[in-house]
Every structure is written in C-alpha cells, then in structure tokens.
Fold each of these.
Amino acid sequence: MNEKLKQLYQSVILQHNNHPVGYGKREGSAYTLDAYNPLCGDRFQLFFSLEDGRITGLGFHGYGCAISKAATSVLVKHLEGQPVQRALEMCRAFEAVVQPDAPAPSATEEDFEAFAAAREFPGRLKCATLSWEEISRFLEAQGVGG
C-alpha cells in the first residue's frame, strides 16, 4: 500500500468512525434495513425514505468495527438526497473500489478511494461493503431507479 493511500485510509476511517455522518435512530422513516455480518457481528440499521425518487432522511444506528462504521457514514454522506439511480451508481462505484481484482480507483470520491486500501485485507472487505450492499439490494429489489 503506498503511503498516500495509507494516510488517506487512516484519516477517512478515523474521521468517519469518530464523527459519523447521520448516526442516530430515525423515527418516521419509511424504510429500515438491517445490515448484518454474522462473521464478525457488525450490525447497522439504515433508516431512510424515498420522496420524489430521491433518498431522504438517511441515517444509521448500530455497532461494528471502525471500517464498517466509517463505510456506513460515507454511505450516508454520499447518498442522502441523491436520486435513486445515482445512488445505485454510487453503490456500484464504492463496491468496485474495494474489490481485490478491480483496477485502481480513478475519478472517484476521495472517501471512496480511501477504502481501496481494504483490498489488502480480504477479511475486511465485507466490513467495508456491508451497508452499501444492503441498500443496493433493497433499491434494486424495489425496481426503483433501474
């Protein structure tokens, strides 16, 4: 892992773990998803609504390792207010960044690029993608934005 990526990884993970975006239970959300990893025990609930084809009121609550919490915080930061189709594109982009066989990230959000370092820790890939995969599955199953 090059030094720039290592520093970016550490700063993004620490920032989002210590000061997560959208952390807290959300009353009145239309949807609550349970993102759970039985292998390590990470569990987050994602709260949101869909209004006029956009994700609104997005937040999360739960517990997990620093990587899963930071990745979920980044999800909230980037998907809140997005049209569903754009949110799905961002989910795919994030998931592609952390995949071991994917090319090095280019022209992605800096927050996403930081998680490319997770490639070097295959056991942590699920931690990074847990919430992203859950919301992506939900949106695709609803047939929205597709």
Note: The longest helix spans residues 125-142.
Amino acid sequence: METEEKYFSFVVKTDFHGSHHRFDQCGIVMYLDAENWLKGSVEYENEHFQHLGSVVTNHGYSDWATTEISSDIKTMWYRFSRREDDYCIECSQDGIHFSQMRICHMWEGAGRIRFGIYACSPEESSFTAVFTDMKLMDCVWKAHDGQQPD
C-alpha cells in the first residue's frame, strides 16, 4: 500500500506453517528505498527456535533487534503504526494482546511511504506464507503524556 497519511495503524495475521529452512521469514515491511526501510517478522532458524525481530535501516545503516521464540509458533499478528515520521511495530499471538517490538524514527519517513506484507526464502528454499485479517485503521499508538507532535 502507498500513503501520505500521517497517523494510522495496520494489522495483519501471518501464518507460516510451511517455514522449515533457515531464514524463511514473513511479516510486515515499510519500504522507502534500498537505504531506508523497516520490517518486523519471524525468521526460521532451526527445529528448536526462530527469531522474532525487527530491522530499521536509515541512510543505509541497519539496526537489528531479535529474540528467540519456539519453532513451534507458526502464526503471528503484527500491528504497524505511524505517527508522522515515527513508527511502532507490535506483535501478538492472539490478535488481541499486542507487545511492543520496536519504536523508531525514520529520517526519510515523513512523506509518502509504502508498507504492507512480505515473505522470503533467501536461501535455496520456498514455503507458503498466508496473510489474513488485514485491517487499516486510525492510529492506536498514542503519544506519550505531554508529547506534542513533531
């Protein structure tokens, strides 16, 4: 999707039961260009664990944040929210209770952006990722008490 809307949230449920090879992944992405982008996803590692994580890339410099989760988890909800040029990614296993994964500023992210879903198998693999329950809504990520917009 493409938008100039400054305040919104986007929710999606991902199902990746077929992921079985290292680096199989699916989730959400905000892409401006090769030097400026943001993603949140589950990335399969092995039969014991996978990585739930996010990557922020500003001006070509990437910052990764990951945590290990069981490889038995095969569905994940994501909520992506925008407040002008600040962004929040949250995850949930039930689509109701969301936990913050990342809050970040995108230096080039104040104007028109492209965002949505993604899946990839960067090594010699393939799997089916299913995306359902997509919803675009008013921003549910509220400003901190006393914080004015930029």
Note: The longest strand covers residues 49-58.
